[in-house]
Specification:
Blueprint: H1 17-31, H2 35-44, H3 49-58, H4 76-88, H5 94-110, H6 113-125, E1 130-133, E2 149-153, E3 156-166, E4 174-182, E5 199-205, E6 211-216, E7 228-238, E8 242-243, H7 249-285, H8 292-321, H9 326-351, H10 362-372, H11 379-390
Parallel strand pairs: 1-4, 2-4
Antiparallel strand pairs: 2-3, 3-7, 4-5, 5-8, 6-7
Length: 391
């Protein structure tokens, strides 16, 4: 594995001892992952479940939650640091860890005691993997346009519809699924309001009859995450798997997605530093390339990467104090992913044709960073959301 470049991480000086411990665990774990295994997961587009289980054994799989249901007892600043390291090293479970925690979040917040015992405890150990069923062919960033329906029947609900681009979908044990609840009285609407007011959240087990894995996506970036379609065809979900209340699905989803965007920001920070790490490896191979102008350009890239780390850790600290807003998470996500693309693009320009050397991981980081600008709400949508807060 490429050795980490010694960079002055002055942004870390206010970390607590516990947060530094999580950071140290992340580096120790990531440094054990070989470049060959990273490239294999990427080229073959296969999710390394054994690596995910190993990460959960360290405590990463439920890091920011209280120990009561198997949580790691950490905080979101620590989780952000772990995600940064995972992305910096291109560890091929990075995104799935983020989504896994994203799925646990609403169960902690809205789940019943039985749901917490059933899903959170095995999730913490890696014996269960969660996936988030939100995106649809006609509802990407526009979550209000969800078409999947849930019809009330005796003792439960019947789901019909399709979800797409579901990270970890083909490997997951359970799914947090958003659907429009149809009752005899509302015909898809509540009190004459729009479709978004009928969205309801469910926990759906992988083995549920009527649920099938559809197309598996051969992605440009973020490969190796079992990204796929979920197809619901008269899929019966028992009443005890309702998550939260009827028609409160957007509340359930948004409570998690805001935190998920902070996770993406931390991953993007890692991509930026990973690109700089690759530059340092290149310069060791070609010491004559280390001219003054390149030193100046590296300083510029380091400044950009540091700005994303600071903004991301600030947003993560707002999660821990209960003060995170959609505006804060949107700014962190769009700034970090745009910066990551800028840093890796410039690094590739400096390296030139050798950027295609897969062992540098530059071209992989480039593809992943591009995906980061798009998923969990495109950066254009993030700027639109922030604009609504400012007008």
């Amino acid at each position: 594995m490429t050795k980490t470049v010694e960079i002055k991480n002055s942004e870390y000086f206010l970390l607590s001892t516990k947060q530094k411990d999580w950071l140290d665990k992340a580096y120790k774990f990531a440094n054990r992952v070989t470049v060959d295994s990273i490239l294999e997961a990427d080229s073959q587009n296969i999710f390394p479940y054994d690596l995910f289980e190993a990460a959960c054994e360290v405590g990463f799989g439920s890091l920011p939650f209280e120990p009561g249901f198997g949580g790691g007892g950490g905080d979101y600043v620590s989780f952000a640091l772990v995600n940064e390291v995972m992305a910096r090293k291109s560890v091929p479970i990075m995104s799935s860890l983020g989504v896994h925690v994203l799925c646990q979040e609403p169960i902690y917040a809205f789940g019943t005691l039985d749901q917490k015992n059933k899903y959170l405890i095995p999730s913490s150990s890696g014996k269960a993997l969660g996936a988030f069923g939100l995106t649809e062919p006609e509802a990407g960033s526009d979550t209000a346009n969800i078409q999947t329906q849930a019809k009330m029947v005796a003792n439960g609900y019947v789901l019909n519809g399709t979800k797409v681009f579901i990270t970890s979908g083909a490997s997951a044990s359970f799914y947090i699924v958003m659907a429009r609840l149809i009752t005899e009285n509302n015909n898809g609407n509540t009190n004459g309001k729009g479709k978004s007011d009928t969205i309801t959240a469910f926990i759906v087990d992988r083995q549920t009859a009527g649920l099938s894995i559809g197309q598996k996506f051969d992605m440009l970036g973020m490969r190796g995450y079992s990204t796929c379609e979920l197809v619901f065809n008269d899929c019966f979900v028992p009443s005890e798997n309702l998550l939260g209340e009827h028609f409160h699905g957007r509340k359930v989803a948004l409570s998690s997605l805001a935190k998920g965007r902070v996770t993406i920001a931390s991953q993007a920070t890692g991509w930026a530093y990973g690109a700089i790490d690759a530059l340092m490896v290149y310069f060791k191979r070609h010491p004559k390339a280390m001219k003054k102008t390149y030193y100046e350009r590296i300083g510029h890239l380091l400044a950009l990467a540091a700005s994303t780390r600071i903004k991301t850790l600030e947003a993560a600290s707002l999660v821990d104090t209960g003060n995170l807003s959609v505006k804060d998470s949107s700014i962190a996500k769009w700034h970090a992913t745009d910066v990551a693309m800028e840093v890796v693009s410039e690094a590739m320009n400096i390296v030139g044709i050798e950027c295609q050397d897969k062992s540098l991981l530059l071209e992989k980081i480039y593809r992943d960073a591009k995906a980061g600008q798009i998923y969990e709400g495109t950066n254009q949508i993030q700027r639109m959301l922030v604009g609504k807060f400012l007008t």
